[in-house]
Amino acid sequence: MKTREMVLAALFAAFIGVLGFIPPIPLGFIPVPVTAQTLGVMLAGCFLGRKTAALSVILLIVLVALGLPLLSGGRGGLSHLIGPSIGYIFSWPVAAFCIGWMTEKVWPKLKTWKVIVINFVFGVVLVSLIGAPVMAFITHTPVWAGLAGAAAFLPGDCIKAVLAAIIAVQLKPISPIEEKVQNT
Question: What does pLDDT average to over the chain?
Fold first, then answer.
């Protein structure tokens, strides 16, 4: 891994951490709040590419595990990685990797709508399909109830998917993916 990629991974971990300072929106009927951090996960994937994006999110999780208050609401430490949000948080590296992988596949013919679809499938649907059943298991509720509760995230997550796609397409010339494509 090049130094530039390591620096970008660290910067995106910091960016996702900064998004955690935006106050979470508790929903009341589901123990997982709405946060802005999934925007950072989606943006990391569609801007950095698969490996660097996944590394940035893994770095964020390691920093949270070490106690840094980088999760929404200024939470940090191992205790916050074993609650109802764990499925969502641990789905982030998978989502970032998948978003990056698919974005790299369509990069030569990159269009905003393609990145929106990629972000929706992997940044919204995949995260919910991993996070909701884990949340249901931890809270001792039926999986269908967890998935139904996760539907509350859809409007905000769709907006985040569109924002991340627009930003990534605008930043295409400076993306590390562009550098990889030009070097091959």
Answer: 94
